[in-house]
Design brief:
It holds the Pfam family DUF498. The protein has three helices and eight strands. By secondary structure, it is α/β, with parallel strands linked by helices.
């Protein structure tokens, strides 16, 4: 099963191939996507993306995880999260969200088992 492409991105809105929903923040993985609700793990811009935020995507068996830090890169990604992913053998890419979506879609096109967590505002 392949990862769905990010079909469109604009400030505060993302659409994922195969889903009728419009997301503000989202998680994607081979075969699916869902809204990323920061309240589930208490995530805030700082300290940022925690291992608990990416664990669900990791469990889907991804080889690469792309993290979109927001349009102005306000969302932090602490070293502990990158280390958690690397210990799982996952290639991690942390980028500004527009660049992250381009990278993610390129990996999808290459057939990589890629997942992502994306923040579409600040």
């Amino acid at each position: 099963m392949s990862s769905p492409e990010i079909a469109s991105l604009s400030w505060g809105q993302m659409k994922v191939q195969g889903s009728t929903k419009t997301y503000k923040d989202c998680k994607v993985w081979p075969g699916g996507s869902r809204a990323w609700d920061w309240r589930e793990t208490g995530t805030e811009h700082s300290p940022g993306v925690q291992p608990a935020d990416v664990e669900e995507v990791v469990k889907k068996g991804v080889q690469t995880l792309v993290i979109g830090r927001g349009m102005s890169e306000a969302l932090k990604v602490p070293p502990s999260t990158v280390e958690y992913l690397e210990k799982q053998g996952i290639d991690v890419r942390v980028l500004q969200t527009e660049q992250a979506v381009k990278e993610y879609n390129a990996l999808v096109a290459q057939g990589v088992r890629v997942g992502g967590v994306f923040h579409s505002t600040c």
